Hints:
single chain, seven-stranded mixed sheet, 5 helices
Amino acid sequence: MRPAASVEERAVLLTYIAGKVGVMPANLIGTLPFQVASVIRNGRPMGAVLYTNFRQYSVEMIVAGEPGWITRAGIRAAFHYPFEVLGVWTVLAMAARTNMASRELQKRIGFTEQGVIPMSRVKSEDMILYSMTRDRCRWLPQPDQNLQEAA
Length: 151
């Protein structure tokens, strides 16, 4: 997984994610700054991760892709950016209440369900809010693990 290399590539990947999620690109990011990373195969995006709503200690992650696009290495890379590069404490994610595949994936990779945000996607659809803190992210070495391994 690699970050978008240009403004144009960021726009292409944002449009890709928006199409997968079913919203307009501007509705994903509003006027806030964002970063996006992708997996490219045969010259086209197979999947992408959007980081938006960065607020010093937290950031929202939106993930979309073709079936089977993400690997364990890709998941590690997806969490490396917010926790190690941005230095946030918490990554937030949302999934539509009716999107059971996405909700199950969130739980399998370690997100914890926090609650329901009513009518937040469209007037008739609730979103489920998930979070993961750095100390509960099993995809990255824990800080005290590094000390134990060095001893």
